[in-house]
C-alpha cells in the first residue's frame, strides 16, 4: 500500500492528498482496524456546470483553505480588457451555470468489523460530524462515511452573465470562510478524540494491517471518486445522536473498546 506521504499522484484532479488532514489520515491508517479509501479536507469552489447534464463541468476556482475574496472578484469581474480568454473564448459555453460551493470534510473509511465501524461513527458524531453513518455492511466490506451538513451551494449565474454583485460575492466568501473554520474545529476535535482512544500518527505498511486491502493506488483515492461513491447515501444507515447509547452498546457487544470522549 502506498504511503500517505508518497509523491505519486492519486486519482483526484488535484493529484495529492489534502495537506490539512494528513495527520488525521495517518492516525486512522496507522490503526490495524481501519484504512481510508477516499477523502477531502473541505473546500471552497466555483464550479462551472453545463446545463441539463448530470456530469461534466470544471472548476473555475478551488481552495482547501479560507478563500481570498479579492481573488474571486478578479475571477468573476475581470478588469477590462481581460488578461485571459474572454467569456466568449472560454472552454465552457456561455450557458454553463456557475455555482459557488463550500463542502466540509468528507471521509470514507473501511473498517475491520461492524463493532469498529460503530465506534468510529459514534466518535465522529460526538465531534460534530452528525451526518456520519455506515454506508455498507454487506459482503466482505464495512464502509463508514464521516461527514456533516454545513455545506453551502449558491448559483451565481452563468459563464456569459454573472447575476450577483461584488458585495454579495464578498458576503458569500465570508460565510464560506466561517464554515471552513467550523469544519477545521470539528476535524481537530475528531483528531483529539482518536488520540484519546489510542490512535497515533505513525506510518504503517500494508503488511502490518489486519483489515482488508485498499484500492490499487494505496487506499487514499481521489475526492471526486468519493463524492461520486456517496451517491449511495440514500440507502445509508445513519446513526443519529439519539442512537448514541445503542452505538456504545453495540460496540461493547462486538468486543471493541468503549469510546472515551
From TrEMBL:
Reactions mediated catalytically: 4-demethyl-7-[(3S)-3-amino-3-carboxypropyl]wyosine(37) in tRNA(Phe) + S-adenosyl-L-methionine = 7-[(3S)-3-amino-3-carboxypropyl]wyosine(37) in tRNA(Phe) + S-adenosyl-L-homocysteine + H(+)
GO BP term, pick one: tRNA processing
Keyword Repeat: no
Domain of life (superkingdom): Eukaryota
Pfam family, one: TYW3
InterPro entries (UniProt xref): tRNA_yW-synthesising, tRNA_yW-synthesising-like_sf
GO-annotated molecular function: methyltransferase activity
Domain tRNA wybutosine-synthesizing protein, chain residue ranges per copy: 2-195
Family: Belongs to the TYW3 family.
Protein name in the entry: tRNA(Phe) 7-[(3-amino-3-carboxypropyl)-4-demethylwyosine(37)-N(4)]-methyltransferase
